[in-house]
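Recall the central idea of this unit: under ordinary conditions, the amino acid sequence of a chain determines the structure it adopts. In this exercise we apply that idea directly, starting from the sequence alone.
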Amino acid sequence: MQPFKVHILGCGSALPTKHHNPSSQIVEIRGKYFMIDCGEGTQTQVRRSRTNFSKLYAIFISHIHGDHVLGLIGMLSTFGLQGRTTPLHVYAPEGYESLFKLEIETFCSTLDYDIVFHPVDTTKHCIIYEDRSLTVETIPLKHRMPCSGFIFREKQGLRHINPDKVKYYNVPLSQLGNLRAGHDWTDADGNTIPNEELTTPPDPVRAYAYCSDTCYMPSLAQMLWGVTTLYHEATYCEDMKDKAQKYLHSTAREAALTARDAGVKQLLLGHYSQRYIDETPILSEAQAVFPSSFLTDEGKVFSV
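Accordingly, the structure predicted from this sequence is:
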């Protein structure tokens, strides 16, 4: 299977600490790199992760709170200093567009690459990016300002050639592309060999969902159905549920309920409050509801 990984660059909440940076991730899928959120210090974290700046195609911003966006303009400036020439696409809430353009004019007016801004309607669940191998969907979230999650979903790949069967039936090399696409093959005598005999099924489709920041939304699970790996904020434990409700965040238990009801295979927890020096209580609370829960941490890489 092609690589589909999530590189954690930052998983803290509003206040940076000695333990965690503000929110940022890189999604690596079939050789493409996409960034989600870009809190302060993200470009330093990219260097530490040893991912390649030049391979970054697009950046997706969930909402315009500082811990999700204050690292963006500095990183774009660095790209220019490094000699980037490939266009970079930025997907962010539509309300950010005027400020973003002002920042570009003020700090990045001499860049040698194009920055293409795509306004996102955070109230809609729709596809905002698509290429031959994947789509990116928005997920409306409920926070103190317009906020959107994202689903990175693979497209169905090609079938796999069964070399023994292909050799047995003397299928010419010129026909292998048709077999991968699902077509049957007819030999010189007019005998049709079913595709299922000459190939094996394609790899299962995988999907990764990023949900930060949001209060608990029971209806969210339905939009996440079919997702393989879910990142969901877990800012607090249940003993601080009053704060979660006040600031429209989620507890670890609520994140686990969403993962359970959505039928995902694994849950990644993050966006920890600075109150937690040790996130073990967050993990324990989530695993009591959804055992396949894991703590994110800077430098960790998770396979989807």
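The CA atoms of residues 173 and 244 lie 60 Å apart.
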